[in-house]
């Protein structure tokens, strides 16, 4: 069983930057995809970006492509989400997740009920 814990949420203005961190623990981490999802009030949770720990392959949703960057530090067992050019619509609770069976794209775009582990979430607020 893999466990993930998010940190780094906060507030910033439009155009600003934030970085989120996901600390993962458990057996077989190198075989997992780690991803970032978010849920805004009144909206469904959406997959933003996912990375495969075995080869570093990544997936980005169109809504964040070019603004957000996912990266993995294997020595630290951490996955980061660098968020730049923040927009008001980026306001949401951001969740880290782990998936031991699917590719990054499948994890981010597929059935979220198949995700193995979810963090509790961290709030990001973008306001002027």
List its salient traits.
mainly beta, single chain, four-stranded antiparallel sheet, seven-stranded mixed sheet
Explain how this protein is built.
With 128 residues, this protein is mainly beta. It is 5% helix and 47% strand. The protein has one helix and eleven strands, in the order E-E-E-E-E-E-E-E-E-H-E-E. The protein has one helix spanning 104-109, and strands spanning 3-7, 10-12, 18-25, 33-39, 46-52, 58-60, 68-73, 78-83, 92-99, 117-118, 122-126. Strands 2, 4, 5, 6, 9, 10 and 11 form a seven-stranded mixed sheet that branches. Strands 1-3-8-7 form a four-stranded antiparallel sheet, with no helix packed on it. A hairpin with a 4-residue loop joins strand 7 and strand 8 (78-83). The longest helix is centred in the last third of the chain and has 6 residues, at 104-109. It is globular, with a radius of gyration of 13 Å. The relative contact order is 0.31. The mean pLDDT is 96.
Number of helices: 1
Structural class: mainly beta
Q: Could you spell the SSE succession in H and E letters?
A: EEEEEEEEEHEE
How much is the radius of gyration in Å? Answer: 13 Å
Largest sheet: 7 strands, mixed
Average of the residue pLDDT scores: 96
* Number of strand elements: 11
Low-confidence spans: none
The fraction of residues assigned to DSSP E strands is over 45%
Distance between the termini: 41 Å
Task: Report helical residue fraction.
Answer: under 10%
Global outline: globular
């Amino acid at each position: 069983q893999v466990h993930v814990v998010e940190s780094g949420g906060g507030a910033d203005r439009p155009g600003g930057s934030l970085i989120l961190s996901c600390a993962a623990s458990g057996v077989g981490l190198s075989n997992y995809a780690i991803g970032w999802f978010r849920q805004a009030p009144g909206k469904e949770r959406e997959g933003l970006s996912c990375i495969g720990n075995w080869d570093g392959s990544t997936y980005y949703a169109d809504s964040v492509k070019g603004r957000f960057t996912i990266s993995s530090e294997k020595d630290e067992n951490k996955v980061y989400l660098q968020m730049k050019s923040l927009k008001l619509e980026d306001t949401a609770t951001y969740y880290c997740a782990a998936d031991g069976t699917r590719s990054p794209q499948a994890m981010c775009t597929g059935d979220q009920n198949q995700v193995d582990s979810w963090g509790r979430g961290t709030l990001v607020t973008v306001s002027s």
